[in-house]
Amino acid sequence: MTGAEAKEQEQRTGLARLRDILRKLYHGTSPAAFRFQFAAIIVDLAIIAFFIATPVLQESRSFLWLDYMVAALVAADLGARLLASTDPLRLMKQPASWVDVFILVTLLFPTALANLGFLRILRLWSLSRGGAIWRHFRRGKVREWRDASQAVVNLVTFLLVVTGFVYTFFFRTGAGIAGYVDAMYFTVATITTTGFGDLVLPGVAGKLTAIVTMLIGISLFVRLAQAIFRPYKVYFPCPQCGLSRHEPDAVHCKACGHLLKIPDEGQ
Description:
Elements: H1 3-27, H2 31-57, H3 63-84, H4 88-92, H5 95-108, H6 122-129, H7 141-144, H8 146-171, H9 176-191, H10 203-229, E1 234-235, E2 245-246
Antiparallel strand pairs: 1-2
Helix pairs in contact: 1-2, 1-3, 3-5, 5-6, 6-8, 8-9, 8-10
Pfam family, one: Ion_trans_2
Organism: Ollibium composti
Domain Potassium channel: 156-229
């Protein structure tokens, strides 16, 4: 074996070792993996807080430094998840990966894509869909509130996205946080169909924005009510047909009749 071949083999071995470590951290259930996943969630929440505060912070001198720091974190997380994945191509086809790529682009070009910055809050939605949050709550009452929690996240994400859109295209002339609060006030009044009428969006575009906000907002409220009041079901993929939601005391899959062995949450 030549020196170049030996060096290449060493690099491949190092990459394989790195991928193995990342897989254990991102998908493992050990105490070290739990600490890493918990820290990643905290960092994600801090990034989301930065996205929410962006309309107020973007006029400050330190905004670009914060923006590029967040871009580095998002890029590192995306790259690490790709290395940890057994099928990177499949991972990149998932909507959550598209969201991360879009967020990364807007962070790298904050001035040119400033009008699309409000869509960064979609990372909150992708975070709620990840398995890291729920992996360690397989037992107990917390698991029962998974659907309701995701419905709340969907509603909050929509609220913040619409608030960002309304602020960017209708209220940006307002002074800093006052304009953002006006945009949020209008959005909440519209979603809840309260319609006080003291704040309205001008023109045809404003009316269309209000119509879309009301229609989607009502749908999300209905989805939240369904998630709270419908009977609880456990997540256990059927080995035969793949159906993942079943009654807690189910013995057979209701779709294909296959015998199930759902673990007792009390054990």
